[in-house]
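Lay summary. Proteins are chains of building blocks that fold into shapes, and those shapes determine what they do. In this project we predict the shape from the chain. Here is one chain we studied, written as its sequence of building blocks.
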Amino acid sequence: MRNLFWLMAGMLMLAAARAEAAPETVVSPSGALRFTLDTDPDGRPVWSLAREGGAVVNPSRLGFILGDAPKLERNFEIVEVARHSADSRWEQPWGERRFVTDRHNELVVTLREKTPLKRLLRLRVRLFDDGLGFRIEFPQQPNLTTARIVEELTEFDLAQPGTAWWIPGGEWNRYEYLYNRTPIEGVGQAHTPITFRTDAGLHLSIHEAALVDYAGMWLRRVEGQRFKARLSPSGTGPSVVRDLPFATPWRVMLVAPDAAKLYAASDIILNLNEPSKLPDIGTWFRPHKYVGVWWEMHLETASWATGPKLGATTANTRRYIDFAAANGFRSVLVEGWNPGWDGDWFATGHDFDFTRPTPYFDLQGLSSYARGKGVRIMGHHETAGNIRVYEAQLGAALDLYQRLGVDSVKTGYVADAGGILAPDGSYQWHDGQVMSRHHLKVVEEAAKRRIAVNPHEPIKDTGLRRTWPNWVAREGARGMEYNAWGNPKNPPAHEVNLIFTRMLSGPMDYTPGILSLTGKGGAPIPSTMARQLALYVLLYSPIQMAADLPENYARHPGPFRFIKDVPADWEQTEMLAGEVGAFALIARKDRHSRDWYVGGGTDESPREAELPLAFLDKGRRYEAQIYADGPTADYRTEGRADIAITKRIVTSADRIPIRMGAGGGVAIRFRAL
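And here is the predicted shape, written in a compact code that computers can read:
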């Protein structure tokens, strides 16, 4: 009897131990995705992901290396578990779609060290049907008051072989690289978003959301298909220094059966950010198109520096204001308006003054002249990476713009990666913790004055435009200026790659619309005329530039009509078809009318297809205004300017045959009748 008692007690103790060690799981609302958290025999937290029973991410570690304390990696046990669900819909003040659905299941797991320190970490997972986000929270606790994070040990061990589209992380030119297409095993160290297509056709993208007071995450391939987070370095010690309590940014993986659904899945990044702090932004920011004193500098027919080629003169700016007023553009960007551009300003910025114009630029008079014509000046603050100078003048500079009615500003950080001069005199990376604080500071200070912000050479987009919707766009990739002077220029595949990589993170100020199809010295741009129009639909931004010179638009009134008509704010967006790096067809519905627009673009290969119009409102007739590649359109030849502009009446039951030449595209306005 005694032996039986001890046998039963032992079995109960073993069952209890097994129950304690059992992994925790959560499934997505439809049951398609399953997330599992477990601990390995050494007490390391490991996570994995499956889709419809097949492995997507093999067991992957979590943890941190600290600069002044033992690392947070081993000897953890699960001590508390909670679960929640959400199913809601919220409205964007502007965006690719007006309404966003947030439907997820949440798992919250508290982990405690079994060592005497008994330090705590809390993993919060939100699982959607088309992806997930997870973050580590550092709760307040006695044995860890400040976290000095040298490395984050988050891993992504991809389970299936496939192809990757990526740009290098930690290199001098920030995010401004052409995309590599390699086997997954060919990735080195990459920026996010990074996109994968498995050999079985599953599409994945890894990124982050809500990057606040933390270093940006790069991904370094360790071995095979296992990737580890690498935090952008700091010039003064650990990559991240935070007092507890705090949370890391969300680590995000989008999971979709095809490229079109991957594009739609990017709403997850918005959903993982906090709601808007600017409930009244609709009263002072409206998506719009703008022109500017900009392209001529990249052509080197004008200059930022004072002298005979200065572009930012009162007379030249009045010319652009008149052009904007005559053609319905709301803003005129002017670069080179302030002192600091003379001499070697690249990566220095010591002489920039953001509170007064040069003697050649009547800022107050031009602001008044523009407002009289229903136009605004778009401000410009180039820092050359010197945020010590910029932050010292920031309040006064924004006050000046507020007084003059300048309600949007393009900022710039032209410096090599690692060359940002911080207020404390240290040098920092463009995507380190210092710059994540800096960009939010600029956005918050601008919001106080009802000013929208569009940074170039920025920190990457992680969906913070939901929380701060005056952060309207940014660059953060190789833009149109490379077609003026780049070597090489942006090949046709680059813009298609952007749709399925960079554009998953948010809007980009790509500055399209070069109808001259020529860059510096008359060198041809690798694009067709129709492709330049299609970019207004393919590459989303709530502020879109008509980047070419006014005289070039005067030479092409037919194609220019589409640029004037196309909106910058959308009620609804549907990707009709696409393949990463090959082609894309996107339909968007204007938020302020019943009109729809379609943009299509292809890589270096010509394509023909029939476009089904089922996305149009049923029971309504439309005039389809079609801007298509002509029969000789080819980005490699003089035929690049061949464009066919036609009209026809259609309904949602119809199909339209389309042809895109090599490096070409198609743009269509469906005007509701």
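What the prediction tells us: The radius of gyration is 26 Å.
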